[in-house]
Amino acid sequence: MTGTATRGLVIVMAGIVVLVLSIYCDQGRRVIAGESDAVRPGAAAGGTIHITSDKVTSDHNERWVEFIGHVRATQDDGVITADRIKIFYEPEKQGAEGTDSAAVEKMVAQGNVKIVFDKAAKTAMAEQAVYTLHDKVLVLSGGRPTVRAGDDVVQGEKITLFQAENKTLVEGGRDGQVEATFRSNGQGGLIK
To answer: Which of 116, 102, 18, 99 is nearest to 60 (CA)?
Structure first.
């Protein structure tokens, strides 16, 4: 997968981080719906993020917030849809300006996960997507994960995108091999 494709996935995932920090970590610990242009320290900027779902639930003691039912998260040209998206965050730390901020540890999208990015040129699909922020790793698993870029397709039992290292690992597992179809057309493809 090209560096642009991996960065596109990370931008979409980081966008969710910005939104969750904006809507959840206010002083009153209330969960509110809506959009936000706010950017917290350490989060990636990228414009307005909008999440819709049937319901939102959270547990401040356990440090998570979850969007449930027909979840759709959009930012710029990226869209993530899933049955549910749960975001886990680290304990709050006192910020430089005296404000509390919580850093997101991990995001888990489950059920019919679809990630569209790079102006709809690339799509990733799986039953589950787990993104950990500290190491910038996205793992797609369940339901024969697939990544498409135009006519190029790669499938496996598990697809791991190592954003910080600009690497991708596709594993076939015990039930089958990795499948890949590349039509380079002189343009490169998923993997250079």
So the answer is: 102
